[in-house]
Every structure is written in C-alpha cells, then in structure tokens.
Amino acid sequence: MPICARSCSRGCEQPLYTAETKFNSGCGWPAFYDFIPGSVDRHEDNSFGMRRVEITCSNCGGHLGHVFEGEGFPTPTDQRHCVNSLSIKYKEQ
Ligand SMILES: [Zn+2]
C-alpha cells in the first residue's frame, strides 16, 4: 500500500492510495485514479490561466503531486493522480 513518505522523521506514514487504484499512465511517475477518502487534500490553483490541482497529505501537509482530470484514461474516475515518487513509499498491506 502506498503511504506518505513525507515527514518520515515525524512518523507520518499515512496510507494514501490503495494498490488497486494504481495504473500505468506512461508519465514515469506513480499514477493513481482515486485516493483513500480523507487522506489527501486538494488545492486548486488557477494562476496563469491554467487549472491545476495540487494534492497534499491531509496528515502532515506534505506535497504529493498534482491531479489531472478528464484526460481520457480508461479508469473509473478519469483522474490521474501524478505523485512524486519521493513522496510515497510502499508498505505491505
Ligand atoms: Zn504525510
């Protein structure tokens, strides 16, 4: 299970995604189409005429990556959570 790797010294390790929601987006970074409810905060950024959604860990506030929607991936949500590989680590379920 992917868990938060931010603020490791403070022992965050909050579960963020389930392994079932991981998919291959081709972007080279871990991609998920849905998150564990309550584990991720969304921050919309409409600067520069672009709509971007930053995602952060709801527990420690650490930056995780960005969410992109409506790209046409064959997933249940049509969302792509592009997560910095430095922001998560994997733990046996
Ligand atoms: Zn965290």
Automatic annotation (TrEMBL):
Residues 1-93 form the MsrB domain. GO terms for molecular function: metal ion binding; peptide-methionine (R)-S-oxide reductase activity. The keyword Mitochondrion does not apply. Keywords: Metal-binding, Oxidoreductase, Zinc. The keyword NAD does not apply. One of its GO terms (biological process) is response to oxidative stress. InterPro entries: Met_Sox_Rdtase_MsrB (IPR028427), Met_Sox_Rdtase_MsrB_dom (IPR002579), Mss4-like_sf (IPR011057). Its cofactor is Zn(2+). Pfam families: SelR (PF01641). PROSITE patterns: MSRB (PS51790). Belongs to the MsrB Met sulfoxide reductase family. PANTHER family: PEPTIDE METHIONINE SULFOXIDE REDUCTASE 2 (PTHR46081). This is MsrB domain-containing protein. It comes from Chlorella ohadii. The lineage of its organism: Eukaryota, Viridiplantae, Chlorophyta, core chlorophytes, Trebouxiophyceae.
